[in-house]
Write a structure and sequence with these properties.
The chain has 1 helix and 16 strands. By secondary structure, the chain is mainly beta. The longest helix is centred in the N-terminal third of the chain and has 4 residues, at 61-64. Residues 1-35 form the signal peptide.
């Protein structure tokens, strides 16, 4: 991967054509993160009620090496399980609330995870559906120490399955801001820069670096024609390889191909952030 010092706080000298890159400083996940809180609005719900889960003091994406998300699973599910009844990705805020669809009777947990360390549960809270009278529930912090990825070679990061019943995602890339990450070996996903699709022809990197692009709806492909991303190509998708809802895989050297089989290091991944990147 080529590096462009205009967009990296630390740079690497290579013999290839400069291109946009991501920060080389590995995210420090070797010590406990700040106390994180996860709790539901009730300890018990009826089968017709949606489940409201509040999160507080959760470090942002760029601080933990990638997207953060909350899953709802049966209480008996192993912590390392990657499938879920429903998954909600957190936007660019340390505090907020996500809403899950109504469930069948049973005992469940909401669990906070990071894509950079999916086997670890950062915080959790339990609740039941259709089994007892609803009462308020207090916060339940559970800080954890994520483990680094051994070795330096790019590896494929497993992705939580997007369950049936979630909100329908946009068929084409939404206008707005995207946070771009790239796999950095032991450092996991490292945040590099942000760009916005301003309209159907113009994009902006950070705050004031403009360029033009073209999008073909039939193939879901983008071509960056001018500006700081000139020469890059992208592929829009919503589930599969490292997907975080609306996602654009970016390649500085031609079309994105073999998305599922290529190593993470071959591409950058732009994750849509409706509230902007913070």
């Amino acid at each position: 991967m080529c590096f462009n010092p205009r967009y990296a706080e630390q740079t690497m000298l290579t013999g290839c054509r400069p291109a946009l890159t991501l920060l080389l400083t590995a995210t420090a996940l070797l010590s406990p993160v700040a106390a994180q809180t996860l709790y539901t609005s009730k300890t018990a719900y009826s089968t017709s009620e949606t489940i409201r889960v509040t999160f507080k003091e959760v470090p942002l994406d760029h601080e933990v090496g990638g997207p953060r998300y909350v899953v709802v699973v049966p209480a008996s599910a192993p912590d390392a399980q990657t499938s879920a009844l429903e998954t909600q990705y957190l936007q660019s805020d340390p505090d907020g609330t996500v809403v899950f669809r109504a469930l069948q009777p049973g005992t469940y947990q909401a669990r906070l995870k990071y894509m950079s360390s999916m086997g670890l549960v950062q915080a959790r809270t339990a609740f039941t559906v259709g089994m007892s009278k609803a009462v308020p529930t207090p916060p339940n912090p559970r800080p954890a120490v994520p483990a680094p990825t051994p070795g330096g070679a790019p590896v494929q990061v497993p992705v939580p399955a997007q369950p049936a019943g979630q909100a329908i995602l946009p068929a084409n890339p939404p206008m707005g801001e995207y946070a771009v990450y790239q796999w950095n070996g032991p450092g996991g996903f490292v945040y590099g820069y942000r760009f916005s699709l301003v309209d159907s022809k113009r994009y902006r990197v950070r705050d004031n670096e403009w360029g033009t692009y073209a999008y073909t709806a039939s193939s879901k492909r983008l071509k960056f024609l001018t500006g700081p991303l000139k020469g890059f190509e992208g592929l829009y998708y919503t589930k599969g390889r490292n997907a975080d809802g609306p996602t654009i895989a970016l390649s500085p050297s031609g079309p994105v191909v073999n998305l599922e089989s290529r190593a993470n290091g071959a591409y950058q991944f732009g994750f849509f952030r409706p509230g902007g990147v913070k």
